[in-house]
Amino acid sequence: MAVNAKKIVLYVIVVFVLYVIITDPAKAADYVQIGFEGISDAAKAIGDFMTWVAHGGK
Prior knowledge:
Oligomer: single chain
Structural class: mainly alpha
Helix content: over 70%
Largest sheet: none
Shape: elongated
Distance between the termini: 52 Å
Order of helices and strands: HH
Number of helices: 2
């Protein structure tokens, strides 16, 4: 039963994403840009933390 629910949820998400892309490509592009900016910010934060750790936490 849980596997079927996961498949249904995944299907609904895919349909929603395709709907947004088809109906408003500019908005979809904005969402992608926001996502990549978030990933970039997270990677920078991890890099800053690792640099801080490598310098002994100073």
